[in-house]
Structure to design on (481 residues):
């Protein structure tokens, strides 16, 4: 069985503990590889490798650094087919999604930040005739990147690429549930000759590897994507050392459909927003708010479309939803369906685990689920479920829609459907979220600020925001005298 090692100082390293964790294929429930069970000893080795590599990496020209990143981007593109298979196998997501979204975006992340760093400038301020100030943007040193299992390489590279472009050296940890593509990336970095120590990957759990990374005194910043509870723990651990933190956390995002929306588009995209990647994307629209005058018609058509979604083998090109990441996660999602019933919800379709025939008989599949009849403040409508479950909520007025949209602890994204331009502007401004889409969902431009408010996180990723996060501004004031 394949054993995935750490990548430290440009070398494959076994875990200091000598122990390995099983890697399970969610579509079959079978263990198909093992990954190093890292510990603080491995983190220490990775941090020292990164620290040693930092002076040379930071003093390279941006063009030289960009050159390495572009070679990595090209390498990912050249391996798209194989890496998409690996990502699909590791996560249970449809292969078609990994081919069209995950792996292309990972390549784009490197290409984007390679070119962005070439365009980045810093400010200068003239103080009358007395002085000129200019701002140096200096890399931080060693930074930690911790990513989740839902979009493994996509989010891993979304952090690593800007950190490296800005001149930092990285210690990174993919989710222990999905370590495969991060390991493939390490091999590619070795192949393109990325200097040893510039990128180090330590595998293992959050408590054994993530926490030692966060508290390590030589780690100057932590970029994390994952659950809100974990983000809160990381913030508490990092606070005594005043580390820079970028936390991209959960969401309970509203899709808001007004009666004046383009009906067909709103219908199709609200299904996609709820169920893409089995609902395991922090941006998924898990609360579907529909104007009361449209509600019954929209509900009927929405449920019909959801019943037409195909849950199946991720390798089948006709599959819309693959397996959930783990049996434990599926149990958690199903427990929310049970909770919804207790809270008075009606299951309009779905609600059960699914047993597929053949090679996927023991996979972690679940029916796409639509629930109505719940109060906006009940737990089902307040807590992140992170699975193929959407609740329908009718509203009567624009004010009520905004009220319900904002009535959760989260504030990541929203998708608003209306053809009334003035309303679109009003609602977008009033929603408490870092990202509002109007008449679309998850349309991404990598230059835009990405992140959430309230319990959805702190800071912004994307574009120059990410490059600013991974640098420290230093003002230099020079007198003309
Ligand atoms: N992008 C998102 O918004 C995501 C949200 N979630 C939410 O979080 C819930 C729990 O899922 P998990 O797999 O447990 O996600 P998680 O937030 O625990 O895991 C994300 C990453 O953080 C690491 N990690 C865990 N505990 C840590 C700690 N104390 N210090 C440092 N790193 C740590 C994990 O090993 C993984 O690499 C999900 O049910 C879902 O609701 C999960 C994954 C992604
Ligand atoms: O950057 C994007 O396009 C999407 C990011 C998605 C997440 O951060 C997530 O699902 O956790």
């Amino acid at each position: 069985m394949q054993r995935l090692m750490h990548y430290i100082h440009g070398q494959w390293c076994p875990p200091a503990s000598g122990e390995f964790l099983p890697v399970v294929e969610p579509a079959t429930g079978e263990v198909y590889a093992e990954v190093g069970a890292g510990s603080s000893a491995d983190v220490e080795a990775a941090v020292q490798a990164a620290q040693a590599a930092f002076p040379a990496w930071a003093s390279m020209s941006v063009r030289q650094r960009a050159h390495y990143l572009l070679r990595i981007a090209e390498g990912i593109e050249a391996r798209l087919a194989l890496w998409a298979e690996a990502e699909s196998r590791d996560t249970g997501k449809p292969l078609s999604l990994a081919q069209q979204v995950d792996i292309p975006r990972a390549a784009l992340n490197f290409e984007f930040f390679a070119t962005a760093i070439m365009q980045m400038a810093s400010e200068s301020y003239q103080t009358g005739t007395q002085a000129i100030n200019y701002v140096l943007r200096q890399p931080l040193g060693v930074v930690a990147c911790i990513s989740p299992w839902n979009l493994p390489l996509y989010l891993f590279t979304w952090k690593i690429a800007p950190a490296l472009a800005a001149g930092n050296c990285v210690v990174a940890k993919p989710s222990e549930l999905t370590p495969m593509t991060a390991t493939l990336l390490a091999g590619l970095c070795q192949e393109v000759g990325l200097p040893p120590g510039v990128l180090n990957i330590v595998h293992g759990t959050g408590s054994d590897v993530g926490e030692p990374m966060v508290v390590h005194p030589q780690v100057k910043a932590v970029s994390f994507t994952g659950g809100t509870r974990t983000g809160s723990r990381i913030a508490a651990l990092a606070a005594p050392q005043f580390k820079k933190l970028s936390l991209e956390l959960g969401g309970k995002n509203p899709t808001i459909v007004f009666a004046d929306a383009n009906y067909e588009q709103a219908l199709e995209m609200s299904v996609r927003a709820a169920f893409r990647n089995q609902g395991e994307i922090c941006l998924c629209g898990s609360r579907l708010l529909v104007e009361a005058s449209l509600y019954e018609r929209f509900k009927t058509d929405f449920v019909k479309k959801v019943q037409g979604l195909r849950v199946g083998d991720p390798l089948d090109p006709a599959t819309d939803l693959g397996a959930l990441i783990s049996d434990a996660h599926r149990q958690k999602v199903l427990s929310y369906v049970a909770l919804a019933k207790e809270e008075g919800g009606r299951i309009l379709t779905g609600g059960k685990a699914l047993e597929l025939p053949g090679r996927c008989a023991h996979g972690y599949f679940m029916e796409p689920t639509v629930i109505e009849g719940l109060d906006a403040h009940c737990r089902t409508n307040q807590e992140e479920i992170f699975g193929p479950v959407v609740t329908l909520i009718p509203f009567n007025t624009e004010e009520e829609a905004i009220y319900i949209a904002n009535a959760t602890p989260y504030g990541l994204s929203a998708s608003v459907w209306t053809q009334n331009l003035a309303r679109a502007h009003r609602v977008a401004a009033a929603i408490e979220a870092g990202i509002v889409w109007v008449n679309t969902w998850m349309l991404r431009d990598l230059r835009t600020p990405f992140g959430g408010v309230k319990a959805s996180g702190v800071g912004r990723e994307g574009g120059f925001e990410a490059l600013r996060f991974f640098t420290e501004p230093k003002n230099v004031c020079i007198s003309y005298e």
About this structure: The mean pLDDT is 98.
